[in-house]
From TrEMBL:
One of its GO terms (molecular function) is flavin adenine dinucleotide binding. Residues 71-133, 138-195 form the CBS domain. This is HlyC/CorC family transporter. CDD domains: CBS_pair_CorC_HlyC_assoc. Keywords: CBS domain, Repeat. GO terms for cellular component: plasma membrane. Residues 35-46 have a biased composition (Basic and acidic residues). SUPFAM superfamilies: CBS-domain pair (SSF54631), FAD-binding/transporter-associated domain-like (SSF56176). Belongs to the UPF0053 family. Hemolysin C subfamily. The keyword Iron does not apply.
Length: 298
């Protein structure tokens, strides 16, 4: 799967696959797609953006959006080396909350495939007491795709090959990102919440005393009333209405998953879930005694 120089040999085949995107789009939608010089006008593409310019879920995204629009960047990929033992593998699954993890040889640019949590559970359990564990035996194949491939084509490949994770491969054969089938489906039907996600009707939950797991869109004023701390940003002309807005104002960008942001009031905010476009979930550790921001000296 990898070349001797350390680059993935999957890049050329991924680029060739993209050439069939127009015909496969017809298979996905059941519509005839004319060549580019006489392409049919699709009114749905004009309404696929909200008033703020962000993409709205819809079928038109399957053709309009590329893998690079939805992929998790390389720096945020949770992956494991092939020589990982069972205890460390179980810990990686537990810490990340994922059911699939990419497996690599020596660097992420030398991927071998992925390991599924179900395979580990069925063959070894979770007690880490086995001496004959070999991660390489559990490695399943991945899809390799270029960042410019339409997401509808990748979704069709995932369905036909029954592989629900793809690595994004750049022009040099290196790993550029990762995308799962859930990332693609969310572009059509909206965000998918599972049993471990915070209930939409409950914007936050107290995980332990003083520690809250919250949706990024949780109303700021209601959370402030809950914890009794003012989370407004000192000396800022911009205001935030949500917890995610507070984090964005503090950092000036969309922070990466796992990043920790410290608020002047003493609250420590961990980004539990985020993608390149938005913050999704946060973990907030609230101090017992609120920190009072010092006034600037005259």
């Amino acid at each position: 799967m990898t070349d001797a120089d350390g680059s993935s040999s999957a890049a050329p085949s991924a680029q060739q696959t993209e050439q069939s995107s127009r015909s496969l789009w017809g298979l996905l939608t059941g519509r005839k797609v004319k060549p580019r010089d006489g392409r049919q006008h699709d009114e749905s593409t004009e309404t696929s953006h909200g008033s703020n310019g962000a993409s709205r879920p819809g079928l038109s995204n399957l053709r309009r959006m590329q893998i690079s629009d939805v992929a998790i960047p390389k720096g945020e990929i949770v992956a494991i080396p092939v020589d990982t033992d069972l205890a460390d593998l179980v810990e990686a699954f537990r810490d990340s909350g994922f059911t699939r993890l990419p497996v690599f040889e020596s660097t992420l640019d030398m991927p071998l495939g992925m390991v599924h949590l179900k395979d580990v559970a069925l063959q070894y359990g979770f007690d880490g007491a086995t001496d004959d564990f070999d991660l390489k035996k559990l490695v399943r194949p991945l899809i390799y795709a270029p960042p410019s491939m339409p997401i509808g084509i990748l979704l069709q490949k995932m369905q036909s090959q029954r592989i629900h994770m793809a690595l994004v491969i750049d022009e040099y054969g290196g790993t550029d990102g990762v995308v799962t089938i859930e990332d693609l489906i969310e572009q059509v039907i909206g965000e998918i919440e599972d049993e471990h996600d915070v209930d939409e009707d409950q914007p936050w939950a107290e995980e332990s005393p003083g520690v809250y797991v919250a949706l990024a869109r949780a109303p700021l004023d209601e959370f402030e009333a809950e914890v009794g701390i003012d989370l407004s940003i000192p000396d800022s002309d911009d205001g935030a209405d949500t917890l995610g807005g507070v984090v964005f104002l503090l950092t000036g960008r969309v922070p990466a998953r796992g990043e920790i942001v410290k608020h002047p009031a003493g609250v420590e905010i961990e980004v539990v879930d985020a993608d390149p476009r938005r913050i999704k979930r946060l973990r907030l550790q609230v101090p017992k005694v609120p920190v009072v921001a010092s006034e600037p000296a005259d």
